[in-house]
Amino acid sequence: MLNNEIKNIYETVLALDYFKILTQIIQKAGQTEKLSKEGPFTLFGPHDGAFYTFTTYDPNDIAHEIAVITLEEILASKKAAEEILNYLLVPERYTLSDLRTFTSITAVNNQNIPIEITNGNIIPGNSDLMNTDIECSNGIIHVTGSVLRPTL
Question: Which of 60, 51, 64, 3 has its CA nearest to residue 25?
Answer without folding.
Answer: 51
